[in-house]
Amino acid sequence: MENKTKQYLVFPESKDSNNPRSLLFQELLENGLAQKENEKILIPHEEICRLSSIDQKILELPDPYPFDIRIDASGMLHESDMQLVLGFYEYNHGNQLFGECTGCILTLEDGTEYLLSPEQYRLSEAVEEFNAIRDRDFPASLTKFSEIKQLSKKSAAILDSYLEAENIFVPEKIGLKLSKTEDGNLEILPEIEPLDKSNIQRQFETKFDTARNVRQSYTIKDEKNNRLRIPFSKKQQDELRKIKEYRRVDGKEKEKILKKPQEIFDPDVIDLDNFSDRVIKIGLYKPRYFPFISPYKSEWIPGIIIDSGNEKRKVLVPDKEELKDLQDAHEKADSEGSENVEWKGEKIPINNAKKLIDLSKEQFKNLKSPVEKTIDEKKDEKKVLIIIDNLYEDKYQRHKKQPVPVPETFIHNFKKPPTLKREVRLYEHQREGIAWMESLSENKKYPGGLLADDMGLGKTLQILSFIDWHNATQNKEKKPYLIVAPVTLLENWQAEFRHFFNSDIEMSSVYGSGNNQITLDNLKRHAIFLTNYESVRTRRNHFIFGQIDWAAVVLDEAQKIKTPGTLVTNAIKALKSDFKIAATGTPVENSMVDLWCITDFVVPGLLGSAKDFSEQYQKPIRKNISDHELNQLGQKLRSHVGLYFKRRLKKDVLVGLPEKIEQRKESIMPDYQRNTYLNGLPT
Questions:
Q1: pLDDT tens-digit profile of 233-249?
Q2: Could you tell me how far CA 4 lies from the centroid of its own chain?
């Protein structure tokens, strides 16, 4: 290390291309993490902090800073000239270490140097930025200090008593909370609710409504009865004044706010997102705990579904002995500093394992009633679209309850797809399926349907025929269409579209997490877009897919969303569309809840909440009911889903097929599989 600058540490270029330092320089240069100037290697301070301890030794960097950092206030946050003093101490209130920070290097008066951690470096930079702000107003001070307080926790820095008592929540955007009065007028309030803390929102609403003028900040009490300040920037204050102006409106102003709020409010400040009305907010994804989908007959067995983003896994704790094994595995992982608990061949994130242990203890106190809790999200998880999931309560509905049985007035009126090639001959069951989708779509109260035909009956052709008809007759606004399918089937969709139709509408494949075609501008085009489930689920992409106003959304192999609460299921259900089609030959794979979850995408609310559905349909099946009772239960469910469900079997519609011959061959389970199976049976 030759010298230090504010931005970089500067090193002489190594002449030996094979020594460790030279190889490290080459790696950093190739990855854009360093730059070369006049035989010097310049490495930014933030990259120096992130280097591994081995790489830091190769560069002969100082030892990590081992002592305390403390921040004291020189003045009050409402004072424009207030400063923060960053100090280094052997321990809190111990001997102060005097020196100077240059980037991530602390040099003491006696020449001793220390290397700051990434968190300590960011804290040092943030304090310097705070002190450098000129003409600072109170909201700006609170906002910047909020960042510093978060960094102080991450770096284990100490705040003086005044700063420690300052708790701040900074709203990134302000939402509009709309409600109708009894006389039909529209009421508007600002919404700043942070992460389900509705008490904070209620207090803020009261403060906002009772004050004549908009304030720079509002002070309320948090859930621990501590003082919490909520600052607003000048632009946010301007928008809050508009909300006060339009606090209660009717007539043309009401219609304008409902249909074109961007003409009144600044979308950069007010959250006027274009997501489905099923999306309630942007928040942290929480793996859910589902006691009601336990496979056991008479007792609620604790478990979690873990969705890592690449896969989803159900982990159950069937008895107290296995809970003890899980506790032992957790203690072992904790003592070794491991991020995962290895248990029964599974790797469970250690935080999730701890929650599962706590929940299991509660559940085993009473196996007759489910403990309805969730696994907390990791603090560093990225934000996703949070939907109304209908798991425990039937809150989100997009249908009018239809009479049972299916009304005779619903007619399957077939209309020929306009660009279907003349030589194409449709089977009668295909004409019926197309007519069913066309008739559902024409009657605007029906939001979609579940096409559960047997494999081989031409679901793809039926759906493409529907899209062809819908695009020509119903899609006056030229909205795009979305087809979601496993990646192995996307080429088949394109091949059938080219083979059977002479349509002018473009069909475009857009899939992959880094696909540069997945943009708002591209997906708003009048086209049929093909993508896979993984692409929709990706956190970056599902914000984009979720903002498009789709003419229709089609799910092929819809059993991909059979599991409630996973990232892929929630991302798909966050899509907004005029019409939805789910296609699968296996609407029930593991349990009746599979059918509930798919139906909740097509017609949310039709089958009630997952909890009530499981109680009504899944639980009786576990009681070894008779064939007659099982048949009655199936008929009841069939009448419940009614005209939203279309199911045909090959043996019923394809005449002349040879008899299916099944040959069974018994095979003994391997010992490991047999023991696992026996251990999983309820006692």
A1: 999 999 999 999 999 98
A2: 43
